[in-house]
Specification:
The complex is a heterodimer of chains A (about 110) and B (about 120).
Chain A (H helix, E strand, L loop, with lengths): L4 E3 L2 E4 L5 E6 L6 E8 L3 E9 L2 E5 L6 E5 L5 E5 L8 E8 L9 E2 L3 E5 L1
Parallel strand pairs in A: 2-11
Antiparallel strand pairs in A: 1-3, 3-8, 4-5, 4-9, 5-6, 7-8, 9-10, 9-11
Chain B lengths: L2 E3 L4 E5 L4 E3 L2 E3 L6 E6 L5 E7 L5 E3 L5 E5 L4 E6 L8 E9 L6 E4 L3 E6 L1
Parallel strand pairs in B: 2-12
Antiparallel strand pairs in B: 1-4, 3-9, 5-6, 5-10, 7-8, 8-9, 10-11, 10-12
Classes of the chains: A mainly beta (about 110), B mainly beta (about 120).
Chain lengths: ~110, ~120
Amino acid sequence: KAGVTQTPRYLIKTRGQQVTLSCSPISGHRSVSWYQQTPGQGLQFLFEYFSETQRNKGNFPGRFSGRQFSNSRSEMNVSTLELGDSALYLCASSLEGQWLDEQYFGPGTRLTVT
Amino acid sequence: AQSVAQPEDQVNVAEGNPLTVKCTYSVSGNPYLFWYVQYPNRGLQFLLKYITGDNLVKGSYGFEAEFNKSQTSFHLKKPSALVSDSALYFCAVRDEGTGFQKLVFGTGTRLLVSP
């Protein structure tokens, strides 16, 4: 069974631009969660999607948004990029979500904002 | 709000010795607690979780964690460390919040196992 895939793996953007990251979950998994990892703030939960609906969210500004498609693939969008958005963005999938079952993580997308 | 604390930035242990990575929690209600591991240049991996039941939780790769309600701790343990266990370990708690749930992570503990 294929694991969680994230594209692209690396991305360089300029401040003020927007970016879209993609996550393909394990087949059959309906929950996709997104996380941001930075040296300063550590690991932070962004949001969780389940059956195309945002079910849970962390404390991030509205510039961070996401969506989930009918095949459970998810995208995360960050608009008006700031230098502080430079981070490793991880997505994870699971069958039912809400951390009640095991999450499987992708390798991450490393975003650099210049 | 729920939170977890990992008091040690780094833990050093010799291969073959037992290891403990500490985590304390602050929650209202019943805690949902987790341990994750991040190997160099790789994504996170789930190790184990405590929701309810036995205070000793067994997880992947021979790891286990002990839930202690009186000490509000959820320490990660392994009887015999391997060099390959060297990695970054995160404790986390599910925060029920108001309306939304979220996962709150500790700051991480780097485990170094020497040969």
